[in-house]
Amino acid sequence: MGSVIGKNVKISVFGQSHSKAIGVTIDGLPAGISIDMEELKKFMKRRAPGQGAHTTTRKEGDQPEFLSGLVENTTCGAPLCAVIPNTNTRSSDYENLKDVPRPGHADYPAQMKFHGFQDVAGGGHFSGRLTAPVCLAGNICMQALAKRGIQVAAHIYRIGHVQDRPVNPADPIQADLQKVREKAFPVLEDEKGEQMLRAIDQAKKDLDSLGGVIECVITGVPAGIGNPMFEGIENRIAAAAFGIPAVKGIEFGNGFGCVGLRGSQNNDSYEMREGEIVTRTNRHGGILGGISTGMPIVFRVAMKPTSSIAMEQDSVSMRDKVNTKLVVHGRHDPCIVPRAVPCVEAIAALTIYDMILEQ
Amino acid sequence: MGSVIGKNVKISVFGQSHSKAIGVTIDGLPAGISIDMEELKKFMKRRAPGQGAHTTTRKEGDQPEFLSGLVENTTCGAPLCAVIPNTNTRSSDYENLKDVPRPGHADYPAQMKFHGFQDVAGGGHFSGRLTAPVCLAGNICMQALAKRGIQVAAHIYRIGHVQDRPVNPADPIQADLQKVREKAFPVLEDEKGEQMLRAIDQAKKDLDSLGGVIECVITGVPAGIGNPMFEGIENRIAAAAFGIPAVKGIEFGNGFGCVGLRGSQNNDSYEMREGEIVTRTNRHGGILGGISTGMPIVFRVAMKPTSSIAMEQDSVSMRDKVNTKLVVHGRHDPCIVPRAVPCVEAIAALTIYDMILEQ
Amino acid sequence: MGSVIGKNVKISVFGQSHSKAIGVTIDGLPAGISIDMEELKKFMKRRAPGQGAHTTTRKEGDQPEFLSGLVENTTCGAPLCAVIPNTNTRSSDYENLKDVPRPGHADYPAQMKFHGFQDVAGGGHFSGRLTAPVCLAGNICMQALAKRGIQVAAHIYRIGHVQDRPVNPADPIQADLQKVREKAFPVLEDEKGEQMLRAIDQAKKDLDSLGGVIECVITGVPAGIGNPMFEGIENRIAAAAFGIPAVKGIEFGNGFGCVGLRGSQNNDSYEMREGEIVTRTNRHGGILGGISTGMPIVFRVAMKPTSSIAMEQDSVSMRDKVNTKLVVHGRHDPCIVPRAVPCVEAIAALTIYDMILEQ
Amino acid sequence: MGSVIGKNVKISVFGQSHSKAIGVTIDGLPAGISIDMEELKKFMKRRAPGQGAHTTTRKEGDQPEFLSGLVENTTCGAPLCAVIPNTNTRSSDYENLKDVPRPGHADYPAQMKFHGFQDVAGGGHFSGRLTAPVCLAGNICMQALAKRGIQVAAHIYRIGHVQDRPVNPADPIQADLQKVREKAFPVLEDEKGEQMLRAIDQAKKDLDSLGGVIECVITGVPAGIGNPMFEGIENRIAAAAFGIPAVKGIEFGNGFGCVGLRGSQNNDSYEMREGEIVTRTNRHGGILGGISTGMPIVFRVAMKPTSSIAMEQDSVSMRDKVNTKLVVHGRHDPCIVPRAVPCVEAIAALTIYDMILEQ
Prior knowledge:
Largest sheet of chain A: 5 strands, antiparallel
Largest interface: A-B, 108 and 108 residues
Distance between the termini of chain A: 28 Å
Oligomer: homotetramer
Strand content of chain A: 15-25%
Helix content of chain A: 25-40%
Number of strands of chain A: 18
Radius of gyration of chain A: 21 Å
Order of helices and strands of chain A: EEEHEEEEHHEEHHEHEHEEEEEEEH
Number of helices of chain A: 8
Shape of chain A: globular
């Protein structure tokens, strides 16, 4: 239970880190969307590991195979299923986990929920690897959105104590956003990016890890999309965003930052601009009452530092009910944030596309 | 679309600020839950306006009438419907809003979505008044949870620049939490509460408003509740929390705070305590991989400063497509945070109760 | 659990036979639908009891009160809630039912599901009275459909052994369908109607009851509405239709009748007619592969004879676990079919309107 | 949209007749169900074609490959995905269908819904072949149900004008039901089976086809499963059953047959039997008010004669908008009913298992 999301476009994600394959079924894609496979591949690559010193050296093929739903790379109205084979199956790196849960991982609650039947290898279904099919589905939606003039772009907003320049929410520079998607290390200010990389390297040397914040912008969403109360854009994006492992917080517009402001400082005045009603500023992040205002939608997610660190940690033996020590083996990103950037774009695209079809 | 939430216990909220009544239908409540009407009334009162100098002087009866679902105050398995009459209907305070949208309110996106048919009086279905039936439903779930040893309590964590003492997430003092629910101004440190009240008074005098943060703790949830990916506890609580007007952010455990930490500082070690597996600290907020760990569930929501401020603001005439000035009349809370505390408890209770029934 | 249905237009039905009120919340109605209250009242009256010798003499007011969702009788986009007060509450007619279940009623399974907490008075939430709010919601959808040129009409197809003339599914005469909705006893052939009435009278005299079949036609649905597999029109109408008490079967087009035919006799050939693609015959009932073909949608539901009969029946004491005799008191329709006709129209309208909004 | 069903156990079916593969994702299977792969294979084989003179000669491997969700053939709580490769892809048998719709098939409504982008080869996603993954998912549920003492069995009730002995709904002979599942031609009376086979052969010789009725029995379901109104057992089974191509009707218990009976003849009296409350007869088919009574659940589905017949039929050219003739090529079952028997069992198992987990 839990790996299905969406109302009109419903995705069902499957796979474990070391199962034969991982993948996604997408039900409800309108017929007639032609998919640019090169763009998809490029997008998937942004999430793939092994692309720099700062990421895990584990190799993933991540070449999706489409089992259904397409006729000549165009959606045919039938559910689309795409799988990504796991070449790296049944590793013995993880044997110990059946008994000694890793701090910060789902090992212990999974044991309690699945009574010992869960697949522990590589984190099983809780593995960050499961974001690959989410990216796949997300990019298909992104391509469909682009045809409607809607663009999704995210950048690393912060890693550890280093912060990138924030997007101007009232007028994000499209060129910037386009460029950031092309970058190996997606920041607006490359100098900040270099500081971040150095911080990651240092954490790695210290057998430790770092977290960060990703900022995402969606431009071109017309006013009037969304719903009041429990089906607003915020509700839906948040519900999807916490599906990305390590996400521990989300905020829209000014978010937690609005707490230090007064209403007069936080409200966005309306004004006419070239015959259109806009807000002068965009502290509301493009959403009021759950519904889009026509301004760019802006949100940020907080990601915790990678739980898998190489230094020894305290844990317990679940079998013997005694304290013990644990050293987590395997190859792990000292900071997952850079690779999570396309994942955040993906869940934004999935959600917005689903909501637009609702109208 | 949007005012229904829940899977096993499904609530459907209805009403506008100035319609004949507001209320809620709850489908799926197990039969046999006896409801303590006094406790419910007391809980509803915490949300009700008019209780102090810092809240609106508007009077709301908020006495629910149960139309169905109960036999002698005990749930009978049939959907429960409770209504709260609006005594304050069809006010003329809001006439202007049909044309000039209030900054920070849903007026403009609602106009775009509902094409002018929306009920503008008092904010219509977007009014904060709609949290009354949410509290009603939430308290019923809270009473059902209490019978399972699960307690929900929230306090004002911050208003403007004044911050309350945070709860110790690894070991919240039950007595504190119990007491905070009884307080007229729910803070852990009363001295901080007084500072907050002064800040609110000052904002009011300045025709302005303040936002804040509410922290909520759920104790007694056994390990193993929840699901991976899109139906985890974080996903579900977040999806519900953004249903409270003015919420612009949510974080679990350390949340955005974990960004400045390293993995070794943010991971929670396991240890045996009195034969039970616990974590020594609780920066994860009781949830890993979407599933409860048995530690207290802790989250915080950010609420923006009240949008309705008495000072003049810039806006537009939607009809004439020209810039104009707007003065918002009516009685408004200079800070909605104190009254939102039970609302946050309510959505927490609704969500956790729904998820526990899933097992 | 169970009294919510719909995807885009979600209805939540509440109430028990003898609770303070019954009613319905409708979430997702598009804004701007003006409701003709006279037409609604007229429609509700078709379902109301006490209209002839063949129905129960129980009086129901059935005058709905709209609590929310309307501004000047026009939907405003907020959830609509309408309640119908029960004047007839807490009757003592049903005291015995807590212990001795009525054959053919939900008393026994309800006892097993709700562990004795269910509301037994008048059948509680299982009462046929709960179809009143369904009719209310259905008629609102019907009025919205009519604006799109879609008409829903049903007639009594059979009662006991007397059968009405079937509709010509390939070309139902609109005038006939219009007229049948105006009739006190909705049959196409009045002579058959008189035979049916005589059969009902006889059953009543014999302290017994009769069942029947209702045929429903939906005209004007464009081709291409619906979905494959589990969300086809048949799936959806069936899922709703079994929500009407006493329905035990449903068939579309030729239905069970196609079993005696060969493919060559049951297939409907396509042909051009006035530039349009149509089928010459309509044994498929307007649906192929779950999707509308543009031909009239035709289905029939089988309703069992009223379970409440006045003659003595065998039952058991659930408390004492012994056999016993039961005489069901109260006023009951010897045949529920005539009053169920608008209910069948209502669920058809609800379903089709919901599905049309999906596009 | 449409190929996802279930609430606690959610299946998502994918594939087209001639896509690379077909398959199913199952989300929400409890962890710890060990799957007997031999039993699964045997079950799948009952649906597979090419097993007798009366079925299509098309060969299907139908050997599922499990991509995820299992650890050593035991469910691990992660979504299970199983695929069945299509060996028979991109056939040119169907070229003509893009323009000339087959009577009785989804070709024309699919064209209207998917605007020409649908996959026409082999019927695309509308193909009966898509019942293979449904059977796969159904058998897994069946195995899980068996561990709770719940058995599902179906037999051919009728083909053309030949009728098998009906099951005694009040006391189906378990041995019979067990045996019928082992038979190559699943009827209770083999003599009737031979008559049916002869009728099918004759239809085939005549380039024509036959329909039929399948009767399904579910034993061992405890009383109290299900819900009132729209989530009753009947609603749910019906919603799933119309997902099987060619199903045009469904009835529970006496179904349409109860129309000719009076209440006194159709009501099932309660009585004590060995300390248990049972009904003496079972015309209600084990369900009252949507909830199980503890008696066997009995339903029948009507299947239309195979639409694909070899004789020439009238149709139209959708492109040229003129009448034309059509001869359907390819290998088709002259009667789909025998192979649909396990499909009916599958949807029954899926539904009941889903509903049992709801409690």
